[in-house]
Amino acid sequence: MKEIEKIILSFDLDNTLIDNRKGIVNSFNNALRKFNIAEIAKEKIEKMIGTPLEEMFAQVTKINPSLLASAFREFYGKKGLYQSKLLSGVKNKLYEFEKEGFTLGIITSKKQEMAERVVKYLEIDHFFDYILGETEERKSLGKLDPKLKEILVEKYPDHKIIVIGDHPKDIMLSNNLDCPFIGVLTGNHSADQLKQNKMDKILILDSLKALTIDKILSLI
Length: 220
What we know:
Blueprint: H1 2-5, E1 7-11, E2 18-19, H2 21-34, H3 42-48, H4 53-58, H5 65-78, E3 85-86, H6 90-100, E4 103-111, H7 112-121, E5 130-134, H8 147-155, E6 160-165, H9 168-176, E7 181-184, H10 191-195, E8 202-205, H11 213-217
Parallel strand pairs: 1-4, 1-6, 4-5, 6-7, 7-8
Antiparallel strand pairs: 2-3
Helix pairs in contact: 2-5
């Protein structure tokens, strides 16, 4: 179907496709311990998931967040990554969307190399046409880096994009890309929080399992 072949479904990763709360909490507190900082409650860390890593550390300590982020990634790469799991129904939905002819991609706050490792470990890497995360060229602004739009427009000049995620920054990404947004409530933000910064072309669902082809096409 030609219409569908020109639609990109661009997913967030953590709390949208995967549950990596355990790995992130353990890696975060390990980094704090390494610098003799008291651990913080897992609920507080979980609420920050989706925020760039250095911003997360800046919220809890005045120590250079780059040092803490480096310690986080060292532990995460060895152990935390392997504590990830797919959210319920995700693999079946990705298979359905791929079979229908949608182009699938990921935009995440994670380091791009780490995101690529996670999706490969969870055996969903073959579904995605692109995975865009933090690189040296796209570091300070995360998902809000204008280079992301340039990359997508250049690679997919005639496509329509829909951003799918659980975090307010995913909405801001959709605004930057001037595209619809589908919010899922599998993260730490309510429907009201996800609706705050977008007036139209928005759909809020309990999870990715509730997303249908008709609902996607209704936003185009």
